[in-house]
Amino acid sequence: MSVREPDCLVVSRSRRKAGEKAARTVLGVRGADPKALAALLGAEGAAFAQACGFTGKPGQLVLVPDASGAPIGLFGVPDKGQRDPYLFGALAQDLPTGDWDVTVPADIARDDVVLGFCLGAYQFSLKSAGKTAKHEGPRLLVTAAEQKGMAVETARSVWLARDLINTPANLLGPSELAKAAREALTPFGADVEIIKGAALDKAYPLLAHVGNGSDRGPRVALARWKGSKAGKSAPLLSLVGKGVCFDSGGYDLKPSAGMLRMKKDMGGAASVLALARLIMTQDLPVRLEVRLGCVENSVSGHAMRPLDVVKSRAGLTVEIGNTDAEGRLVLCDLLSEAGEHKPDLLMDIATLTGAARVALGPDLPALFSNDEGVALSILAAGQRQADPLWRLPLWQGYAGWLKSPVADLNNISSRPMAGAVTAGLFLERFVNAGQRWAHIDSYAWNDSGRPGRPEGGDSPGVRALFDAVCKIFETKPGAMS
User: Fold this and answer.
1) How far apart are CA 98 and CA 87, in angstroms?
2) Can you tell me the distance from the alpha carbon of 73 to that of 71, in angstroms, rounded to the nearest whole number?
3) Mean pLDDT within 27-56
4) Confidence bin at 134 (pLDDT 50/70/90)
5) What does the angle CA 416 – CA 441 – CA 357 come to, to the nearest 5 degrees?
6) Are 96 and 71 in contact (CB under 8 A)?
7) Nearest of 421, 439, 259 to residue 356 by alpha carbon
8) Does the active-site annotation cover 182?
9) For the segment 402-431, what is each residue's pLDDT rounded down to a tens digit?
10) Helix, strand, coil: what percent of the chain each, to 5?
11) C-beta separation of 98 from 139 below 8 A
């Protein structure tokens, strides 16, 4: 799957002058003070806006005719000190078709306008016109520099994750997901290896125990990359993603309603790919390893069974208390392998538990970390980027709930509470002592459309994690030449 260009943008040499004849204007304003509006639109235009009920509320849009009858947009922007890139996604959804030049107050970052517009313009379709159909909605006027800038690269990375999550499971199995990783990362010089068959069975026994239940066999996509300024001693960042392309629940079968959206169960892998790609586009001076566990959790004569016991890569034996708790089995061998290389920071992203959604709802990914500094860095980045996560505890008092009478641990808790916490504690058993680690439990889906967040697959937290990586490793993004 190729990374799509945001076709909602139109490039001009100068946003203000080139293409001025065809482009129309949107003015970002705060409030609806009659004098301020009259200064922008004239007295008649200001009266028209107020007659339409325009108050300047953030996200509110009204079109006012100018002296020639052409529309000028008034758009309510966030209050000073408030940041919300998603808000500008409303422009991509609500403006009429055509090219638009958006001007906002100086305290609002231009990147927020570009990013939000692109995120709001995202569409996924497999109709006959497909993704190659010509964009027919509004387009944002940008400069050539902006089109190559970080906001657009961020949007492209998020679009990639959304495309992968939205693709039906019959079109995106383990093999296709692994190949998508190769296609996304090799253009930046990453060395991508796809592991399968006997080699996978030997290296990742728990992952294989999940994935071999499907006729579409498991894959591990392993990528290695380093920035152009990253020497041998540069920080090593290791990313791990859960890529369950469809989750039936296995023999502990999900009900039909619970299975309906399980094409999104590879949302962790998609989010890791988006984050890795963004790191590469900005040429961060780090060494990077990416591991994606690409499997399908199926029901078959060779699927895993309840109470199976499997020896993991780390040597710990795991009893399968529930075949629908497969995501942690996919991750733990990958975490073990990643730890063998002693990364300076290890992070995983997974659509792991319904319990995290019960606790935090769909919009807030749950953050678990064994390192206070890492956790605080990620939380602070989430606030800066308006891409929040919420921390839940690795509460050691619940570790005993994972005991098994016949193995080192069970893959599920003996109690029906704190499911997101016990899942995190399970993963922690496969993380080396002293290893800085963060685990993100994400929903990876928008149940309904909102500005900048159309209904369907999504990758919340990716922008925050990128920001946090920059802060933790004390580096700044800089676009590749």
Assistant:
1) 20
2) 6
3) 92
4) low
5) 55
6) yes
7) 421
8) no
9) 999 999 999 999 999 999 999 999 999 999
10) 35, 20, 40
11) yes
* Euclidean distance between CA atoms 374 and 346, whole angstroms: 10
The CA-to-CA distance between both ends of the chain, in Å, stands at: 24
- Beta-strand relationship, 236-247 and 317-319: unpaired
DSSP code for 5 = P
Give the strand pairing for 98-103 and 24-29. parallel
- Ranked by mean pLDDT, the top range of 37-41, 77-81, 312-316 is 312-316
Residue 434 CA to residue 427 CA, distance in Å, equals 15
Q: Give dist(CA 360, CA 354) in Å, integer.
A: 10
Give the CA-trace dihedral at 395, 401, 404, 410, to 10 degrees: -60
CA distances from 94 to 120, 138, 335, 340 (A): 10, 8, 44, 51
Unique residue bearing structure tokens 């108050």:
55
Task: Say what the pTM is.
Answer: 0.94
Tell me the C-alpha distance between 203 and 430, whole Å: 14
* Tens digit of each residue's pLDDT (9 = 90 or more) over 230-263: 999 999 999 999 999 999 999 999 999 999 999 9
What angle in degrees, to the nearest 10, is found between the helix axes of 327-339 and 419-428?
Answer: 30
Residue 16 has pLDDT above 60, yes or no: no
Contact criterion met (CB below 8 Å) for 351 and 447: no
Q: Name the catalytic one among 110, 131, 148, 254.
A: 254
Please classify residue 39 by burial: count the beta carbons closer than 10 Å to its beta carbon, then call 0-12 exposed, 13-18 middle and 19+ buried: exposed
Smallest Cα–Cα separation from 157: which of 278, 315, 36, 62? Answer: 278
Clarify whether 403 is annotated catalytic: no
The single residue of 139, 328, 429, 463 carrying the catalytic annotation is 328
CA distances from 386 to 86, 87, 144, 184 (A): 9, 11, 26, 26
Distance CA 463, CA 282 (A): 13
Judged by DSSP in three states, 87 sits in helix
Name the token pair of 41: 């639109």
d(CA 333, CA 222) in angstroms, rounded, equals: 13
Look up residue 229 and give its two tokens: 């300024």
CB 323 within 8 A of CB 249: yes
User: In the predicted model, is pLDDT for residue 90 greater than 80?
Assistant: yes
303 Cβ contact partners less than 8 Å away, ≥ 6 residues apart = 213, 214, 250, 251, 323
Q: Compute the distance between CA of residue 212 and CA of residue 303 in angstroms, rounded to an integer.
A: 7
Q: How far apart are CA 412 and CA 392, in angstroms?
A: 18
Three-class SS of residue 103? strand
What tokens were used for 92? 């991509």
How remote is the C-alpha of 314 from its chain's centroid? 29
